[in-house]
């Protein structure tokens, strides 16, 4: 458990950063940064798309870093963790939360933060595959990670809510400094408490014997590998559920503070505290860890998505009815939502460590970094689209940013980042986006999740078949059960699996 905590603590940064993006940045940019909602969305869209493209190459780079001296000395994965702490967390990150800097400042700083965080997260996400092949042990690693990620989600909203409630004009900058220190400590702990597969002399000698490949050719091979990842049926379904569900919860997190301030006329601190109800996700994540082993991901996704759908529909009713004691209703509904969100965030990254095993049967290669890179690329791309879309929808509905000359303050005593009275059309737009955006995305994810076949039992069968083939077993001796499981997980006839011919430059796992 100590090792699991050492691994998982880095997701204080991973989960925390994604929560900052989805829950804080759009509101901070529009309220304190001096940019419109559409401009704010475009900052995140442009930066995340550029970063997503860069991230595609980080995965293969970590897979192949053992070719170079730094990889041999510090590790393929750990080298990036080591350089990330001073490069990003203690130098660049706090600059993002300086108020009033305008569009170009936020765009360039945001882009720098995104790239370096990806440089840390992608190698780190492959470590469960590096550290163990056991389903239960990987689940322990991932469960601990998601527990700490849920903690980060709480801290991201609780800390600025506490500081903001003191009316400190530098509340967000102080928040940025706190997060920079917290994230730096988390990355450092993971660096010193995790490990990678050993580079034996025999393995290194075999690597050195490979022909040198030009950078252009290596990039082309990487792009080809990214495309080959989609030959994996389990990965395709998993990726679709992951992207749809996470984009849905990002959309909700971006909209909720606007909903609290403008649709139901609560304070900004209340909006942040509603997000901080993610604290209920901590015990829920522990419960989900047990159910992941007993019931599998399909059950967890069903519970999570159904709970979220009920919660967002309830928020729609609150807006329409405007009941007495509206804050109490919001607390109950958001607590229910956060329980469902915790399971949503827990499940995909507990399934991911077993996806490369499915690929092993298809390709006979170790390509965990490529799958992590593709998932990161998709996550950042869709998240960027969701934020841009929300900003555009808000401006389309006539949203007035704080500071607009034609606006009237909601609170006349406000002196900084003051919300303005919105037109009914703008208010309806915010409420509708908060409800129907997540509802559509989570609903589609729920349908796709019903067709996912990968769980503890099918993974055991898959792993046993890989071990048998690695030991020199014949494909002709496959059992009927193993054949059926392998074909369902991969989406290919068994005869096409574990190929005799490997791509040029690839190494068979049993060599």
UniProtKB/TrEMBL annotation:
GO biological process assignments: carbohydrate transport
GO CC terms, sorted: plasma membrane
Alphabetically ordered keywords of this record: Membrane, Transmembrane, Transmembrane helix
Molecular-function GO terms, alphabetical: symporter activity
Top-rank lineage group of the source organism: Bacteria
Transmembrane stretches, start-end: 7-29, 41-58, 79-97, 103-124, 145-163, 169-192, 239-264, 270-292, 299-320, 326-344, 370-393, 430-453
Signal sequence interval, chain numbering: none
Name assigned to this protein: Na-galactoside symporter
Organism: Acidipropionibacterium acidipropionici
């Amino acid at each position: 458990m100590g090792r699991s905590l050492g691994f998982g603590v880095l997701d204080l940064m991973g989960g925390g950063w994604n929560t900052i993006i989805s829950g804080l940045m759009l509101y901070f940019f529009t309220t304190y940064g001096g940019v419109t909602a559409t401009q704010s969305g475009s900052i995140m869209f442009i930066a995340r798309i550029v970063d997503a493209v860069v991230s595609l190459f980080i995965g293969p780079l970590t897979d192949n870093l053992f070719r170079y001296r730094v990889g041999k000395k510090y590790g393929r994965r750990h080298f990036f963790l080591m350089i990330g702490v001073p490069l990003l967390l203690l130098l660049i990150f706090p600059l993002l939360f300086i108020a009033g800097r305008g569009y170009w400042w936020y765009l360039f700083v945001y882009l720098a933060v995104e790239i370096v965080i990806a440089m840390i997260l992608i190698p780190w996400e492959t470590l469960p595959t590096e550290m163990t092949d056991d389903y239960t042990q990987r689940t322990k690693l991932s469960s601990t990670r998601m527990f700490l990620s849920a903690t980060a989600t709480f801290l991201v909203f609780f800390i600025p809510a506490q500081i903001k409630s003191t009316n400190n004009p530098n509340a967000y900058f102080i928040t940025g400094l706190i997060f920079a220190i917290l994230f730096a400590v988390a990355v450092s702990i993971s660096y010193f408490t995790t490990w990678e597969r050993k580079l034996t002399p025999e393995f290194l000698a075999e690597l050195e014997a490979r022909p040198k490949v030009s950078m252009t050719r290596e990039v082309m091979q990487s792009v080809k590998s990214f495309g080959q990842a989609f030959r994996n049926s389990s990965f395709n379904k998993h990726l679709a559920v992951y992207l749809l569900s996470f984009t849905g919860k990002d959309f909700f997190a971006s909209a909720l503070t606007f909903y609290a301030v403008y649709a139901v006329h609560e304070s900004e601190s209340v909006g942040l505290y509603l997000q901080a109800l993610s604290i209920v996700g901590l015990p829920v994540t522990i419960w989900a860890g047990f159910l992941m082993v007993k019931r599998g991901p399909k059950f967890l996704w069903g519970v999570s998505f159904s709970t979220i759908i009920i919660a967002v529909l309830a928020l729609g009713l609150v807006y329409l009815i405007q009941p007495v004691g509206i804050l109490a209703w919001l607390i109950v509904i958001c607590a229910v939502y956060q329980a469902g969100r915790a399971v949503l965030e827990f499940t995909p990254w507990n399934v991911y460590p077993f996806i490369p095993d499915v690929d092993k049967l298809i390709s006979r290669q170790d390509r965990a970094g490529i799958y992590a890179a593709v998932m990161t690329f998709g996550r950042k791309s869709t998240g960027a689209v969701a934020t841009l879309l929300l900003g555009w929808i808000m401006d389309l509905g006539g949203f007035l940013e704080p500071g607009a000359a034609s606006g009237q303050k909601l609170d006349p005593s406000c002196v900084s980042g003051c919300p303005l009275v919105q037109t009914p059309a703008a208010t309806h737009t915010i409420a509708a986006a908060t409800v129907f955006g997540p509802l559509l995305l989570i609903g589609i994810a729920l349908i796709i999740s019903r067709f996912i076949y990968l769980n503890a039992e099918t993974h055991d069968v898959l792993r046993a078949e890989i071990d048998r083939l690695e030991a020199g077993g014949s494909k002709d001796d496959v059992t009927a059960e193993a054949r059926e499981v392998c074909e369902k997980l991969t989406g290919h006839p068994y005869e096409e699996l574990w190929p005799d011919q490997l791509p040029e430059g690839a190494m068979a796992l049993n060599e």
